[in-house]
Write a structure and sequence with these properties.
Its cofactor is Zn(2+). Residues 101-396 form the Peptidase M14 domain. By secondary structure, the chain is α/β, with parallel strands linked by helices. It has helices at residues 13-16, 36-48, 62-67, 77-85, 105-118, 164-180, 185-193, 204-212, 265-276, 308-326, 335-338, 346-353, 378-401; strands at 7-11, 27-32, 69-74, 123-130, 136-142, 151-157, 194-199, 281-289, 293-296, 331-334, 357-363. Strands 4-5-7-6-8-11-9-10 form an eight-stranded mixed sheet, with helices on both faces. A hairpin with a 5-residue loop joins β4 (123-130) and β5. It starts with 6 loop residues before the first strand and ends in a 9-residue tail after the last helix. The structure holds zinc ion (ZN). Residues 160, 163, 288 line the site of zinc ion (ZN). Zinc ion is lined by residues 160, 163, 288.
């Protein structure tokens, strides 16, 4: 039997207690189910309704307390959400504080154009497709020199809409690269040897929806032909043991895999682009939150990847650096054994395509704020991920691009 240790999600007590006089606010609860029945109920709540309807409308707050053991992690989630959205438009774009806040989709599109205009020789915008609601999918290409046969890395952020810190990281990475190239030796060495393709918002429709309607939305916003439920989990929609484990064929599920691999325009655009560039792309990074983990293939099977030990060593090295510099602990390992079995993920798919250094980062935190990480945490969360990314990339450059050693003595 699968054990679910902790579920964290939001309950809208306003909806639940509509019939009572109580005024309640959204809360984030951590619930540990005690029985299989509770596991099943919570599984339904957490996968089908971000605002769970766990209780009948005539129930009282007393009821979950007596039935479930739970902990109120955040007593007033609304306040926290408002704080995350504050000062968005008043912040001058391009200033340091711009990168220490979360931004709307429109602001990110503006930032993309502005960054390209300000750095015409090093930044290129590539339109790789559009979302199901026809929002453009822009990849920002960073290329600091014209060396022939240069290798490249790929970074995607925001595949899951509510993981705002992920998108904040992509912006952070671009700023760091442009600001510290030729000053910081690590980023200079990386950009001298590699181009970088960055997709800051892989799921623009979902991201927009988290700003306008439901902060806890995860999937894209595709309309289903067979159901009134909306959205596909893009990180279950890739062709890696598609929809076999840790995914659902129910359109109402939070981990709905879609109707076939790459059925969604967002995952298809990424897959097409990477197929076209697979000979140059050596490194694949997909950035998520939360839980502080550095993961690598496989997630879709318990089998080990061919270069498992090499990937383990890279992730271990990166986690050690984070611990040393930021005194924060990141778990690391193959996805299936470290977090859970899940098929159709982008990192497994990229690995099978031939990108042998494929990673999924789960950024801060480890559960207190979860997806609602306050903006004041952005700098450290991003710097931790940056440290991991740079550590791994420098090692990969050393392994794959170093001139071969001296010929053996004869
Ligand atoms: Zn995610």
């Amino acid at each position: 039997m699968k054990t679910f240790l902790v579920f964290s999600f939001m309950f809208n007590f306003n909806t639940l207690l509509r019939t009572t006089e109580c005024i309640e606010t959204d809360q984030v609860l951590s619930i540990t189910p005690k029985t299989q029945e509770q596991v099943d109920i919570l599984k339904n709540v957490s996968t089908q309704r971000p605002y769970g309807n766990l209780l009948p409308s005539n129930s009282s707050k007393r009821r979950p307390r007596s039935t479930y053991s739970f902990l109120v992690l955040l007593p007033n989630a609304n306040e926290l959400i408002e704080m995350q959205m504050r000062n968005d438009s008043s912040d001058p774009r391009g200033s340091t504080t711009f990168y220490e806040r979360y931004h709307t989709l429109d602001d990110i599109y503006f930032w993309l154009n502005r960054t390209q205009q300000d750095n015409p020789s090093t930044v290129k915008l590539i339109l790789i497709g559009s979302s199901s609601e026809k929002q453009p999918l822009y990849v920002l290409k960073l290329s600091l020199n014209d060396r022939p046969n240069k290798k490249a890395m790929w970074i995607d952020c925001g595949i899951h809409a509510r993981e705002w810190i992920s998108t904040a990281f992509c912006l952070w990475f671009v700023r760091h690269s442009l600001l510290f190239y030729s000053q910081n030796p690590d980023i200079t060495h990386i950009l001298d040897n590699m181009d970088v393709y960055i997709l800051p918002v892989m799921n623009p429709d979902g991201y927009k929806y988290t700003w306008t309607t439901n902060r806890m939305w995860r999937k894209n916003r595709a309309v289903s032909k067979s159901s009134s439920c909306i959205g596909v989990d893009l990180n279950r929609n890739f062709d890696a043991e598609w929809c076999t484990v840790g995914a659902s064929d129910d359109p109402c599920s939070e981990i709905y895999c879609g109707t076939f691999p790459e059925s969604e325009p967002e995952s298809q655009a990424v897959a097409k682009f990477l197929r076209r560039h697979k000979d140059s792309v050596q490194l694949y990074f997909s950035v998520h939150s939360y839980s502080q983990m550095l993961l690598f293939p496989y997630s879709c099977t318990l089998d080990e990847a061919d270069n498992h030990n090499e990937l383990l060593e890279l992730a271990q090295h990166a986690a050690q650096k984070i611990r040393r510099f930021y005194r924060n602990t990141y778990k690391y390992g193959a996805g299936a054994k470290t977090i859970y079995l899940a098929s159709g993920g982008s990192d497994d798919w990229a690995y099978n395509l031939g990108i042998k250094y494929s990673f999924t980062f789960e950024l801060q935190d480890s559960g207190r704020y979860g997806f609602l990480l306050p903006p004041s945490y952005i700098p450290q969360a991003c710097n931790e991920a940056l440290t991991a990314l740079k550590t791994i990339t420098l090692k990969v450059i050393e392994k794959t691009q170093a001139p071969t050693g001296p010929p053996p003595a004869d």
